[in-house]
Amino acid sequence: MLRCIAAPSGASHTGMIALVRPDGEGDDLLRAYGHAVRDGAARARGGALASVATLHELLRLPLPAWPASPIDELLRDTHERTPPVLKAALAALALRAAALGELDETTEKSEPNDPNAARLVALAVTLLLCVGGATTDAWLTLPSSGSGKSASHADLSLGGTFAALAREARAAERGLLAARDCIDTDQQRVRDSLGRAAYSALDVLALLGDKIVITVPETARALGLTPPTAGAAVARLVELGIAREVTGKARSRAFAYEGIVRALEPGSAGKQ
User: What CA–CA distance (Å, rounded) separates 193 from 128?
Assistant: First the structure.
């Protein structure tokens, strides 16, 4: 899901880490989109069908000036005649055209890289794939078309949309495999390097892999450790280069599993 949130904007690994930091740091637009994806995915897993109004509500955008009913009819597709991947691609094209002013002159000044249009399209794709059963959760969406570049004709075609979805699915799979390899390698490094001290460090590593960003108090509570024991285990992971302190503060410090996030970063294609 973290990659799914970052993909439409092409967020870097530092932006992804900030998104899960407990102190609320990071890009406000990215954080708001993250909330929209999580809330929308919860509805989609419950079988709730998307609508243009729902998408705008989740993104906290005002209702559009362009006519929504033709797109709503496609999104609902109550007879389930359209396969979810095809529906997602068609909805992406229709929403992109509408949001960029091709259906209504009142929005003709929209830019091809309008972030609201990109988020609207990406969220619709994510939720349609999820509610249609093509994915089990919100883990796939359309990636960024490139910073500062206008969308090409191919990007605005059905074939281009399918190709972008396929590329992102392959990249997400490679990223997940790379993240798993990262965890396996780091577990072995802990065992080989720490001896008896590896037991608590491995527990902390497992928590770090689950949470991505942890604090010492949170770790102590979650694992039933004393704060000194938790702090020592975290410090060992830092010494091994597995965890990295990301706040730059003397107190209320947070530690990130940067290797996993780099593996999942959009554009990394699974490279660490």
Answer: 46
**Which residue in 240, 248, 255 sits closest to 182, CA to CA?**
240
- Helical H segments across 60-157, by residue range: 69-76, 84-99, 115-131
Question: Topology of domain 175-264, per CATH?
Answer: Arc Repressor Mutant, subunit A (1.10.10)
Nearest to 138 by CA among 259, 31, 7: 7
Q: What is the DSSP letter of 177?
A: H
**Rounded CA separation 173/176 (Å):** 5
Q: Read off the pLDDT of residues 28-61 as tens digits, 9 standing for 90 and up.
A: 889 999 999 999 999 998 888 889 999 999 999 9
- Count CB atoms within 10 A of the CB of residue 107: 17
Domain extents in the chain: 2-156, 175-264
Name the pTM for this structure. 0.83
User: Each residue of 139-160: b (16+ CB within 10 Å) or e?
Assistant: bbbbbbbeeeeebeeebbeeeb
134: its two tokens: 């093509």
